[in-house]
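input
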Amino acid sequence: MDIYASDDEKGEEIKQWWRDNGRSVIIGIVFGATLLFSGRYWLNYQTTLAEQASSTYQQLATLLTEDKKVEADEKTQLLLGEFSSTPYAVFAALDMAKKSVELNDSETAKTYLQWVIDHADLTGHKALAQLRLSKLLLLESKFDLALALVTQPTSVSFASLFSELQGDILVAQGKDSEARSAYQTAMMTLGQGQPRQSIIQLKLDDVAIPQ
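output
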């Protein structure tokens, strides 16, 4: 049975509901439309940003191939500044660090590697930068700083490499017993059949307890 006595009453009920709820409905529609527009704008912005960053990184790669380090550094600074939220900034910093090492410019290399450690989103990128920076510090005999970078791995995938480098640093410090422990950890965390097993074993043999 119809709960309304007449069409007039139905109309009056609808008018009253609209008077009570109309403002909320309109606000909800406007808010929803704003979210939809904002979401589309954000996606378009991110796509454009990624495309620009990719193009800039390709230019950087070409400049590095042509050994134009000064121009490459300018492109890198652009990536680290305007496109720091994209992975291309991390790629650029790692590439420039590598190029700087090749040119015996360790200070510049360390600056780029530290940027990756401070800004990279992926733990793998951070771990890679930590390893490379630690090796540079080891070459400079800055043992404590080098060891601090690889004491706590930021990525499980790099655990063996971190332990191996710990061993190398400890050997350089003359701490063979501690180095042996680090190498043993590196061996245990290394997957079976990995080529690095023979290398780590040689390092273990070098710090073995004399019989």
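quick obs: The CA atoms of residues 79 and 89 lie 5 Å apart.
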